[in-house]
Amino acid sequence: MQRKQRQHLFYFLALTGCVFLLISGSYFVYAAITATDKKANDFQIGQVETSLVEIFDDTITEIEKNQSVKKEVSVKNTGTINQFVRVMILPEVRAPVEGDTNDQVLPLVIGKDLVLENMSTSDWQDGGDGYYYYVKEAVAPKKSTSNLFKSIKLSDSLTQQYHQTEFSIYLKVETINCAEFTYREAWWQGNIPTSTSLKAVDDALKTKVEK
Length: 211
What we know:
Helix content is 14%, strand content 42%. The protein is mostly beta strands and 211 residues long.
């Protein structure tokens, strides 16, 4: 029995992927930021392999508050099997503290302080659990999702508190094979969701599983 459980666990891990990516590092300069792009990590597990696809002008050195900046983000299936995809967006602001080696982490709320513009709400659905789910289709090998968003904008309501702070946006990308209801096991502990947002995600994905 234990051997079978270990084999099942290995199979599950071999068909589950998770990617942590740093997609933007910047500095607030009161009403502007200095922008750079870099990737932190790219993990690949088994045949479920994923990469982040970005279109971003890395020559930009300053961004005014309330100014839209082009940054198209999508996810590409670089593996060999169809995949379901979900993404968590994690903005982070760190402010230096005088006399302390540790930075202060400041809040940056998506939709209020950081606006993700031109989101494809028909293809991507907010699950209400911190993740955006790609519900248009299972992503085939060598294919990409549509853009999750196409530009970002910092709110003009950001206060002096954000002057000279370090700004980053992290993406947590998770993928799962499309075997029947494997996504429920991987993402929701095998449960059928009851919340309105996640139920809508489940209703969309369950029609696309491979039996």
